[in-house]
Amino acid sequence: MNRYSRITGWGMYVPERRLTNFDLEQMVDTSDKWIVERTGIRERRIVGPGETTRTMAVAAARQALAVANLSPRDLDLIIVATSSPDHLLPTVATQIQADLGAEGVPAFALVAGCTGFVYGLVTAHQFIVAGTYERVLVIGAETISKAVNWEDRTTCVLFGDGAGAVVVEATQTPGGMLAFELGADGTQWDVLMIPAGGVAHPPDHEMIDKKLYTIRMHGRAVFRFATQVMTEATRHVITQAGLTPEDISLLIPHQANLRIIEYAAKKLGFPMDKVMVNIDRYGNTSAASIPIALVEALEQGRIRPGDNIVMVGFGAGLTWGALVWHWQPVVPETEAILVEDWPLPQALQAGLRQVRSRAWNARVALSEKATLALLPLYTWTHKLRKSVSRRFR
Question: Is 254 a catalytic residue?
Answer without folding.
Answer: yes
